[in-house]
Amino acid sequence: MALIKMVVQRLALGVVTLTVVSLIIFLGVELLPGDLAQAILGQAATEETVAAFRRELGLDLPPHVRYLEWLGGIFQGDMGKSLANQREISELIGGRLLNTLFLALLAAAISVPLALTLGILAALYRNSIFDRTVNVMTLSSISFPEFFVAYILILLLSINAGMFPSISNVSADLPFWDRVYRSFLPALTLTLVVVAHMMRMTRASIINLLASPYIEMANLKGIKRGRIITHHALPNALSPIINIVVLNLAYLVVGVVIVEVVFVYPGLGQLLVDSVQKRDIPVVQAASLIFAATYVLLNLTADVLSIISNPRLLHPR
Amino acid sequence: MSAVLKFLGSAPWSARFGLLVIFIYVAVALFAPVLTPYSETEIVGAEFEPWGEEYVLGTDNLGRDMLTRLIYGARNTVGIAFVTTCLAFMIGGGFGLLASALGGWVDQILSRMVDVLMAIPQLIFALLILTIVGTSVPVLIIVIAVLDSTRVFRLARAVAMNIVVMDFVEVSRLRGEGTGWVIFREVLPNAMPPLVAEFGLRFCFVFLFISALSFLGLGIQPPTADWGSMVRDNATLITFGDITPLLPAGAIALLTVGVNFVVDWFLHKTSGLRDDH
Predict the structure, then answer these.
(1) Which of the residues A12, A18, B157, B259 has the least number of beta carbons within 10 Å of its own beta carbon?
(2) A104 forms bridges with which residues in the sheet?
(3) Which of A92, A106, A119 is nearest to A268 (CA)?
C-alpha cells in the first residue's frame, strides 16, 4: 500500500511539474516587448495590419483563454501553424519525432549494455591498468564537446575508412537495417557522450557495497570475485544504477539536438534549431514542450523505478 | 613560494598537466594582440588557404587567418564562460547560503523555484529564451548564468545546511550577529572547498554549453572569433579530410580536460573523497 501511495504521489508531482513547464513555455512569449504580431510584422507595420494579424493569431483574447486553447489543441494533436511556412506544426513534427526517438533508442541500445559491462569490469579489476585507462578515457570523453566527438568520428570512420555515411538522411520508408546503418554514426557519438557517466556511476555504486559485511562474508566463504559482484553486489546496486541509466536516457533525448545538426539528421532537434534561427515561435514552443515533457517523464520514471527497486526508500527516516 | 612549489610537486601528473594547460590558456588570452600576426576580423587572403608559411594554420571560410582567430577565441570564449560562471555563482551561491541561513518560507520558495527551473532541460530552455529575446552576448551571459545558478544553489544550500546547525554558528547567533555575518564569516569559509571544486566543474559545463550554442549559430555572434562558431563555419573542410576545423573543437576539449583533472585532484586533496575502500 505504501508503495502505491508513494508512486501516486510522485505521479501527481509529475503532473504539477508538467503543467508549470507548459505555463513557462507559453508565458515566456508574453514577455516579448510588444507581442508576437508586432515582432513578426516589424516596426514598419501600420496599426491596422498589426490589429488584423493579431485577430488572425487569436492574440486579442486574454492570455488564460489562449493558454487553455493551446494546451487543449496539443492534446488533440493540433499545435497550430508554423509562422515560417504556414504548415501544420503537427505535420512538421510527427515524422521527425519518430526519427529522434529511433536515434535515441539506438544509442541507448548500444550504450546501456556497454556502460554496465565496463562498469562491472572496472569494479572487478579496480585499480588495475584496465580500470585506470577506462577512468581517464571516460573523464576525457565527458570533457569533449559533442560536436568534437562527432567530427572525429566522421573523419575516422566516414572519410578515412569510408565505413559509414557522414550524412544520415533517413526517411520513413527505409528498411530497418538500412536505417540503423545510416544512423550509426550519430548513435555512436551519443553513446560516447553518455557512456562515461553511466559507467562511472555503475563502478562507484558497486564499489560502495564491497565494504559491507555481507560481501566480506561471501569473500570468507571463498566465493569467486566475479560471482560476488554479479550475484551479491549487483542486485543491491541496481537501484542507483537504474536511476542513473534513466537519467542518462533523459539526457540522450535532449543531447540529440547537437548531434542531429552535425549529421543533418531529420529529427526534432534540427527542426527546433532551425525554428529558433527563424524565430518561428509556435514551432519552438511545440518542440520545447515535447522535449521538456519527455525529459520530465523520464526523470519521473527514474524516480518511480528507484522507489520500486529499493524498498528502503519507502520508509524514509 | 617554496611551499607552493612543494604543494604542486605533490600533485599527480594529471593535475600538473591540467594546471599547465590552464596557465597557457590564460597567458594566450591575456597576450592575444601580441601573439597574433593579423587582427581578429581582418580578411588577409583567399578562402580556405592551406597551412603554410604566411598563414600558419591556413585561412577560414572568409579568408581570415585561422591562427589569429584561434588565439582571439581563447579570449572571447573562455572570457565569456568565466564571467558567466562567476555570475552563476554569485546568484546561486548567494541565494543558496541565504536559503540555508534563513530557512523557513524563504528556503521553501527558493527551493521550489529551482525545482521548476531544473525540470526543463537547460538547452531547450536556453533555446526558447533566445528565440524570444534574440541573441546577444549580454543575453547569453544572463540566461546561462541564471539557468546554471540552479545547480549552484542546490549544492551551496546542501553544504551550508550541514554547517548552520553546528555549534559555532549557534554561538555567533546567540552573540547577536546578523544574517550577513553568519553567512560570510561563519558559513562561507567552511563551505569553500566543495564550492571551489564545483566552480571548476560548472566552468567546464558553461564553457561546453556556450560552445554548443555558438556551434548551433545561436551563441556568440560573428565577426567575434569564437571556437564553437569557428567549427561550424569551417566544417565543410572535414569532408576533404582536413583537420583544421577540429582545432578549435580540440582547444575546447583540452581546456575542459585540464580543468577536470585539476578539480579531480583538488577534491581528493580537500575532502579525502575517495570511491575506493
Answers:
(1) A12
(2) none
(3) A92
Q: What pLDDT sits at residue A39? A: 67
Residues in CB range of B244: below 8 A, 6 or more apart: B51, B57, B58, B66, B234, B237
- Average pLDDT value for residue range A159-183: 80
pLDDT-derived band at B84, boundaries 50, 70, 90: very high
Residue B116 near chain A (CB below 8 Å): yes
- In DSSP notation, B7-61 reads HHHTS-HHHHHHHHHHHHHHHHHHTHHHH-SS-TT-B-SSTTPPS-SSSTT-B-T
Comparing alpha-carbon positions, the chain A residue that sits nearest to B128 is A284
Residue type, B54: E
pTM (whole model) above 0.90: no
A214: which 3 cell numbers? 555481507
Instruction: Report the alpha-carbon distance of residue B64 to residue A48 in Å, rounded.
Output: 47
Residue A200 near residue A254 (C-beta atoms within 8 A): no
**pLDDT value at B153 more than 80:** yes
Mutant choice from A276, A281, A284, A300 vs B, greatest count of B C-beta within 10 A:
A276
Contact A299 B128 (CB under 8 A): no
Which chain A residues are within 8 Å of B116, Cβ to Cβ?
Answer: 17, 20-21, 24
Question: Looking at the predicted structure, is the pLDDT value of residue B207 above 90?
Answer: yes
Tens digit of each residue's pLDDT (9 = 90 or more) over B169-181: 989 999 988 888 8
Chain pair A-B, CB pairs under 8 angstroms:
141
